[in-house]
Amino acid sequence: MTDQDTATADVVDRSTLETYAACPCQGQAVEQRRVMTASAPTEIGTEAHRVIAVAIAAFATGDVSAEGIRELLHTGAQKSRPDVQPEVVSTLRGSAHMISQLLAFREDGEPRHPNDVMRFDGGEGNRSGQLAWEPRLDLPVCTGAVDLLLATESEAELDLYDWKTGRTWFNSTAVSQSFQFAFYSAMIFENYPECDTVNVRVLMTRFSAMAPVVRFARAKLEDYTARILSALTIYDEHRDSPRPPTWPHTAKCQLCPASGICPEATRDVRDFADDPAAGLQQLAVLGAATKTLKAAARAYWKANGEFRAAGLEFGMNKPAKKRAPVPDMYAIAIDTDQGADSCDTP
Ligand code: SF4
Fold it and tell me: Can you give the pLDDT at residue 344?
């Protein structure tokens, strides 16, 4: 598909699709911007990705050494947005060397030619990281942006690099089961017919560690396509639905930005005994909703200062808790001078 086709088509990006596939209610709330999704980790990630993209662009279009790439990463991190700069510096400090090495040298240690950079996030024209694919004519077009796609010695293999700037650890199981990488691999297979294997390499920048390489094979394209089609069908069915279904799960709900408006949070508490499992889910949703509300309250406080309602105040003046002392056993301080005297006493 050309960029012009994508601009006029009904399009959905990978992240939206993945959110709908996890829970249509969350997917719709996020897509329609009814909830706040901005968070410190997201902002740090966006800035760190931008800094890396600038370094890749310099390597791909010029003659920049490994040392030069490292320098670009360091200075880029230092000059990043002031509100997140310390975290961006911290997440890229250790990994700058790894990124410079993987860009400047091939796996066999030979210097890499800039033309090996096939696509990257922030790249332009046919080097843009943005890929599009229309798996079925009656469903929206899928788009996704890869961080870095590198050529290898063989046309049949491509190396896909992804930067993870958060604190989540990715092992080979997490990578191989990830919707994101099945999605990217399917798109690469569709756009590069000669490619049979996508080697996925996830760099966890904060830990300066690379997850084990996971090979996504064209032989499994049918599986990847079925998974994507299933997500696309869910998206297509529920994106305009007045009451999209909720698919609660403790792990998902605890991190859900839509927990504050989720119908799961308003279940009648008197029904707890009828369905304790659902009650437990409700507890998880309410916990997440509390976190979301506190984040909103902090943002309001930052802009407007302390505020009050119904005998409550939100701000920095919360009295410190003081525990009333209770009788207990404790060690007494020994007076060493007195101890010495007592030894001399006959
Ligand atoms: S809190 Fe859970 S059930 Fe509710 S929208 Fe979020 S993920 Fe879905």
Answer: 41
